[in-house]
Amino acid sequence: MGFKLWGYAKSRTKTEAMELGEVTLIASPEHLRKIAGFLIKAADGIEQHGKKWEHEHLCDQVRGFNTSPQFIVFNLKHYKS
Q1: Can you give the C-alpha Rg of the chain in angstroms?
Q2: Residue 12 has pLDDT above 70, yes or no
Q3: Is residue 14 scored above 90 in pLDDT?
Q4: Which residues contact residue 17 at a Cβ distance below 8 angstroms, ignoring those fewer than 6 apart?
Q5: 43 burial type by CB count under 10 A (0-12 exposed, 13-18 middle, 19+ buried)
Q6: Under a CB-based contact definition with an 8 Å cutoff, are residues 35 and 42 in contact?
Q7: For the chain, what are the domain ranges?
Q8: What was the pLDDT predicted at 78?
Q9: Which of 29, 41, 52, 58 is deepest in the core (most CB within 10 A)?
């Protein structure tokens, strides 16, 4: 398994996360670069800290994403199928 996508509908009528088959990111080049940097930092954190690193929220790590949809990286080692 390379990765999985999970999420909630914007309306949040469902209280349980669902597995997603596709995600479309609509963003400027500037925001895409910030997201890419966040992903690289998350990958580095997982490599450095292993299972001690569980998850990070983009909005907690990068300025300018406080009002954006939540973007969370979750360590595969904590995933239970």
Answers
A1: 13
A2: no
A3: no
A4: 6, 7, 8
A5: exposed
A6: no
A7: 6-78
A8: 87
A9: 58
